[in-house]
Amino acid sequence: MDNLQEKIAQLEKEIEKLPHGYISRKTINGKIRQYHQWTENGKKKSKYLNNDDATIMAELIEKRRELQQELKETKALLPKSSISPVFQTDVLTGDTLKRFALRSANLKSRSCLQKLQTFLNGDTDSRVLILYGLRRTGKTTLIQQSILSMNTKQFNKAAFIQVKQKDTLYTVNQDLKKLLNQGFRYVFIDEVTLMEDFIEGAALFSDIYAACGMKIVLSGTDSLGFLFSADEQLYDRCEMLHTTFIPYREFESVLGIHGIDEYIRYGGTMSLGGVHYNEHSTFSSKKSTDEYVDSAIAKNIQHSLKYYQDAGHFRHLQSLYDKKELTSAINRIVEDINHRFTIDVLVRDFISHDLGLSARNLRKDSNQPTDVLDNIDKDKLTANLKKALEILNKNEQNVKIEEAHKIEIKEYLDLLDLTVDIPVETLPVVNEKIYLTVISQPGLRYAQANALITQLMKDAIFQNISGIERKRIIDRILDDIKGRMMEEIVLLETKKAYPKKEVFKLTFAVGEFDMVIFDPEQVSCEIFEIKHSSVAVPQQYRHLIDWQKCKDTEFRYGTITSKYVIYRGKSKIDGEVKYLNVEEYLNGLGKDR
């Protein structure tokens, strides 16, 4: 019987992918014109097809009919007892559910699995658990691993519902009634935000089924839709478990990949695996990165807004949505955030600091004339790069993106946990704050930065430099980008690890502390320098031992209890300064140092 059920599930899956309807033919002005006609949401629809497309469409429709007949014949072979009740959605139970869950049996677990298990094993309190996050951050794996962790009694009362685009709250409700009547008590509903009426009717899950003793886990990729539901229909009746942020320690422990540079290049999703993991990474190319931003982020926001308050909450984004430009605008804003980060690294780190050093180093082992790099005009290069960025932005923008659009899109990116603002405080001025916008998926930022550098290096100012030397310059710039990103990763992960403390960057008239951890309860702080280098040199901590900087810091933030340099080398102590290996630091966050 299991084989028959598997065949039925496979046939239904194949049928779902094939077109409905039929091909009609009309004679217009003596010419035969062909149309694909079908019914959708009670309305008859029609689309003109040329001869080739009509032939292909007819074959697909015929294939659908053949599979439907095969499905009918296969269902007839099932024992009557296994046919009832008939579910309207895709429901997995018993052996089929076990096979589904076993796909993740050999995978290591994320730390948030414990919270999911705690919910399933806890006392019923009429709440549901919402498991949400961007695509490829491990939601389905968490569900499968939580099913495998169940004891026999729990498993026999567990069911998994896979929602599809055609499903509605009504059909899911009908299946939940049947499951409840049969004694099922643990129900996982995946891709629940695909239902158009989910946001407005989500209270059904908590007010009826959770109240009757069911443990309901709702999962999906439209994170914003869940946040809208939690704010209204499920207010105070849900627990939220977010998967988007994947810290370094999970990148290393779950995926088995070691090294901060690997995390910078590929971190942000759980899609890596195998020896050649980077070949399959979401962020291994510009194309795959753009596709991820489009499907996982931009369409996430647009889909959620479309079904929230009857599409009445677009605010200033309504004009972009009406012109079918909202998805591309969101994509553009994400890319613009990363482009501005890249240009800032170029101007602050490479052009103003590294260019002369790079020239000197390159001349040591190069046959190239010694005056080529010296002749690069820094001001002209800076202006050219900024101008090139403006041209790139303009070329990729079909409609004008106003400041109000940028602000509102950034708000949604913050809600999705994709962007996080890190404070930058200044001394002696203390009443002003600026912020660093950090991308919580480092591989996304690095991929877009890398693509931009490759494009900008085609500037005419570099064309008189040999390909070999140009490659070395690009590598140096990318190394600067990794250094800045390593700073941001440490700041972000420290901020998340110590929610009761203040984590920020502190700048002075000259120089800065890359990170300060301020404990307002103890009125004390720790100060840090963060270096991408693997070599320890005293120059790295010159600001940490600057008497005036330390005095000003203690006046504002209390006693300095520790001074650290975080870098890629081995942990050690150099006088009053402690050197910490960056991977060890990130793995140990939240523990007492």
- The low-confidence runs, each spanning 5 or more residues with pLDDT under 50, are 273-279, 356-373
**Number of H/I helices:** 22
Query: Which descriptor suits the 3D outline?
Result: globular
Rounded to the nearest angstrom, the radius of gyration is: 28 Å
Measured as a percent range, the helix fraction is 40-55%
Beta fraction: 15-25%
Write up what this structure looks like:
It contains 22 helices and 17 strands. The longest helix is centred in the middle third of the chain and has 39 residues, at 326-364. Helices cover 48% and strands 18% of the residues. It starts with a helix and ends in a 6-residue tail after the last helix. Residues 273-279 and 356-373 have low confidence and may be disordered. It has an eight-stranded mixed sheet.
